[in-house]
UniProtKB/TrEMBL annotation:
Source organism of the structure: Rhizobium johnstonii (strain DSM 114642 / LMG 32736 / 3841)
PANTHER family according to UniProt: CHAIN DEHYDROGENASE, PUTATIVE (AFU_ORTHOLOGUE AFUA_4G00440)-RELATED, RETINOL DEHYDROGENASE
InterPro entries the UniProt entry points to: NAD(P)-bd_dom_sf, SDR_fam
Lineage, uppermost ranks: Bacteria, Pseudomonadati, Pseudomonadota, Alphaproteobacteria, Hyphomicrobiales
Superkingdom as given in the UniProt entry: Bacteria
This protein's name: Ketoreductase
Keyword terms of this UniProt record: Oxidoreductase
SUPFAM superfamilies listed in its UniProt record: NAD(P)-binding Rossmann-fold domains
One matching Pfam family: adh_short
A molecular function GO annotation: oxidoreductase activity
Annotated family: Belongs to the short-chain dehydrogenases/reductases (SDR) family.
Keyword Oxidoreductase: yes
Length: 259
């Protein structure tokens, strides 16, 4: 049985993944943005390994989340699930970043750097990453007029690219990105056409399955099938430029060789 941390497990796909993995007998560390939101976990928290609290829009709280996880012990897997979709404005965070970038990209980047390295890492991307742009000069939306859908698409391109970059740099870790499909959660909306069940079972499989097919790295997945991601995701030049930007924005370097 594995020890697995899931960000954003108070709702939607994160909560479904937590329930499913707990049913299989795994030890799950849950995450809520605040003590108030942790109340959404009342039903499953008694059988969880722990609950950590913190808002991913803040680097200070993200640091605290990592410390809370590390205090519980080393995880076998981390599912970077939490995310936000169409923000009405850039909505600057306490650290001065666009909130969409902060929650969807900077927080998983920082948690990857700060949480004791697990065996498996899973990052939630989206089919919308294909509308992302390979221009990295304004990833924090300081120059361009705000475009919520474009900001989300770019964030999902960056997170898929981060998963692939980690796979390249850390050969001892299985690092993969998942497109869960357009599914009916708070984010997806009630009319979302895709399968909610399959929407979370790829993440749980990549995080915990002993099947050889799940023990791979650098993949982009949809419904347990490997899919072709946008060309940038596997482009080493784009990967290196992106992690350089993320290091500049956060002041934290993920890779010891400076890239
Ligand atoms: N649903 C879809 O159709 C779809 C499609 C493609 C990709 N995805 C991706 O799948 C992942 C999960 O999406 P979902 O549909 O399950 O979304 P959801 O129902 O809105 O749930 C998102 C989770 O992330 C948490 N979260 C958001 N901002 C946070 C913050 N600042 N600090 C801490 N926690 C925060 C939420 O906490 P609260 O409960 O407190 O809000 C919630 O637990 C996301 O990364 C999303 O981009 C979803």
């Amino acid at each position: 049985m594995s020890r697995i941390f899931i960000t954003g497990s108070t709702d939607g796909l994160g909560l479904a993944a937590a329930r499913s993995l707990m049913k299989e007998g795994h030890d799950i560390v849950l995450h809520a943005r605040s003590r108030e939101r942790a109340s959404a976990l009342a039903e499953i928290s008694p059988t969880a390994l722990g609950i950590v609290i913190g808002d991913l829009a803040s680097a200070t709280e993200t640091r605290s989340i990592a410390e809370q996880v590390n205090a519980i012990g080393r995880m076998d897997a981390v599912i970077h699930n939490a995310g936000i979709y169409l923000e009405r404005s850039r909505d600057e965070t306490p650290d001065g970043h666009a909130k969409t970038l902060a929650v969807n990209v900077l927080a998983p980047y920082l948690l990857t750097a700060w949480i004791t390295r697990p065996d498996r890492l899973v990052y939630l991307s989206s089919g919308m990453h294909r509308s992302g742009s390979n221009a990295l000069d304004d990833i924090d939306w300081k120059k361009r007029p705000w475009n919520a859908s474009q900001a989300y698409s770019e964030s999902k391109l960056y997170i898929a690219t981060l998963a692939a970059t980690i796979a390249r740099h850390w050969p001892d870790v299985f690092s993969n990105a998942v497109d869960p499909g357009w599914v009916p959660t708070k984010m997806g909306g009630v009319g979302a056409p895709d399968n909610l069940e399959m929407g979370h079972l790829t993440q749980t499989w990549l995080a915990a399955s002993d099947a050889e097919a799940a023990k791979v790295s650098g993949g982009y997945w949809y419904h347990r099938q490997r899919r072709e991601a946008a060309a940038e995701v596997g482009d080493a030049g784009f990967q290196d430029a992106l992690v350089e930007k993320l290091a500049e924005l956060t002041g934290v370097r993920l890779f010891a060789d400076g890239r």
